[in-house]
Amino acid sequence: MIEFEEIFNLAIKSIRRNKGRSILTSLGIIIGVASVILLVSLGQGLQQYITGQFENLGANQVFVLPGQVGGDDGSVSFGQGPPNFAGSKLTLKHVEDLAKLGGPIKTAAAENDLPASVSYRGESKYTTVAGISAQWSNMVNIEVGKGREINASDVELGRKVAILGTSMVEDLFGISEPLGKEINIAEHKFEVIGVIEEIGTQSIGFDIDNFVAIPITASQEIFGQDTVQQVMVQAINQDEIEATKVAVDRYLSRQLDENEYSVIDSSSLLETINSILGVITAALGGIAAISLVVGGVGIMNIMLVSVTERTREIGLRKAVGAKQADILTQFVIEAVTLSLFGGLVGVLIGWGGALLINQFFPATVTFWSVALAFGVSAAVGIVFGVAPAIRASRLDPIEALRYE
Q: What transmembrane ranges does the database entry give (predicted)?
């Protein structure tokens, strides 16, 4: 049997003799590997982004939503329908009582989010207007860079004051100073008392830079509401989350029917979102992996053509002493080399593409996605290279030498 090193060198020389065809043969693998890495990195990046947003929001938060949206095990499930905001039975009295319960509960805040037109001297924008209670800003880690926050007095008296996101300030005021100016919200005048530091889209559901916050009592007045869409309850620390959920549920069960509210912690909500994103990421990776199979078929076809073209060469080598195993090994090496070359180039393209995309959208390349894509590319070379290799190794040397 010929030494492996010599067989390997013969395989590489064969590939280099047909550089153009070799590159085109590897193209399917290149596209497949790059696609897998890019799509998986997008899914992973989105998961990490959402996780980071929840961490910024705080791991010690418990949410009370109107309607029945939680499963029996405390998980988040919308199988029974989304939160019933329009039919909410939650009130500011409930929020105040929860804040005073003590024990594992540190404080509580209320929030109502409604779309409305916001205008100033002819400039108008349709956006989310959040009615908030005094503790809301601290609980969602939002800081006012200029001016002041909405305080307890503003909420108690229902003052017509507002704090704006940076994008809203730019759209309405341009380079002018917004503090002290009056804006119109749903045909009501509100004084701008603060500008929120630039943040971006938050996990709490909207773009903080592009919204307006007003006292929740003022929001209830101008929109004709007397209920609350969402209540956030803050535990004294993360270890008290379960105790806080129990305390909140015990209080609300005496005030409302069990189907009129749901108590959910942020970790349950995050687990549900991540499980959904995990399925989406796997689906995207699976779809991209189809191109790896297509690339493998391409390698097999080219290798079969190569066997036909090199029939006389194979016959000559067998006639001078090459064994069936030598021919088999050479053709498998050629197929695997083409796959590995395509896999390596695909990894570089996928990784570089993910870094580029990350400048505009969350994308995180994970080691397991690179290893999986590269490993599959090697496996494709072996699997799809075997059939042509077996065919080449079984050629009869006499018939092969007579082949034209």
A: 23-43, 276-306, 327-353, 365-387
